[in-house]
Amino acid sequence: MRQGLDIADVEERTKIRAKYLRALENEEWGALPGHTFVKTFLRTYAEQVGIDPHLLVEEYRLSHEAEEPDVQPLAPAGATARRDPRVRDRRRGPAPGPPRKGALVALGAVILVVFLVALGLQGEDESDDERASTDATETETAPARERPPARRRPAPASGVTMRVTPTFPTYACVDTGEGTDVIYEGTLEEIQTFRNPEQLRINLGKRSVEVRVNGKPVEIVDSPEPIGLEVSEDGAEEIAEGTRPCA
């Protein structure tokens, strides 16, 4: 303001977009594409208006660069909470109680009938051959059950599906190929999914993200530097700096 400049003048001289310059002025760090970009923008902006860039960059590094929140660890797979032994699983039903008196009487009657029938069978004179013939006549082979045909899984849809899950809010810019229009630019704060028949390219301000292409995870090497990826049905490749979307 002392030099009579406005945001448009600084944007033209530094080649930094006006929205990023306003974010610097307002200390809206979440709207900026990562720590590396912020320090570069601060240094360039300060040199343009005649302020010591080292003091600004050092102040940002000490005050904001190490403020990212800790990630809560997930519970290990297979871990289960302890059950109170006094609480019974509802699916098993109520605990069985003592047998009722009526049930004991009915059981005794059944045993008596079986005993009398056994005594009557002893008086019958039936040869072993007749018994075998009778058993063979009365026995029927149960027909084998036919198994239902196996369900076929639908063939996967062709094209590229990229799912991005940020650990922390981070800048992202996405297009469908070099020289094409940008289909997304902004700060990722939650899961986003992008689709295209052929390929997708993404420029990320931070590497603290999980990227899956057609359901398969993409390996991202841990580093403080931004990263650009070009993904297709064949996999993902890193894009050189300067050729990434929105570069």
Describe this structure in words.
This protein is α+β, with helices and mostly antiparallel strands and 247 residues long. Among the domains are: 7-63, no CATH class; 160-238. The chain contains 6 helices and 9 strands, in the order H-H-H-H-H-H-E-E-E-E-E-E-E-E-E. A 5-stranded antiparallel beta sheet has the order 3-2-5-8-9, with no helix packed on it. Strands 4-1-6-7 form a 4-stranded antiparallel beta sheet, with no helix packed on it. Strand 2 and strand 3 (182-188) form a beta hairpin. Helix 3 (34-49) runs antiparallel to helix 4 (53-63).
Question: Topology of this protein?
Answer:
Layout (H helix, E strand, L loop, with lengths): L6 H8 L3 H9 L7 H16 L3 H11 L37 H22 L5 H11 L21 E7 L3 E6 L6 E7 L3 E5 L2 E6 L4 E5 L2 E2 L9 E6 L2 E4 L9
Antiparallel strand pairs: 1-4, 1-6, 2-3, 2-5, 5-8, 6-7, 8-9
Helix pairs in contact: 3-4
In short:
With 247 residues, this protein is an alpha+beta fold. The protein has helices at 7-14, 18-26, 34-49, 53-63, 101-122, 128-138; strands at residues 160-166, 170-175, 182-188, 192-196, 199-204, 209-213, 216-217, 227-232, 235-238. A five-stranded antiparallel β-sheet has the order 3-2-5-8-9, with no helix packed on it. It has a four-stranded antiparallel β-sheet with strand order 4-1-6-7, with no helix packed on it.
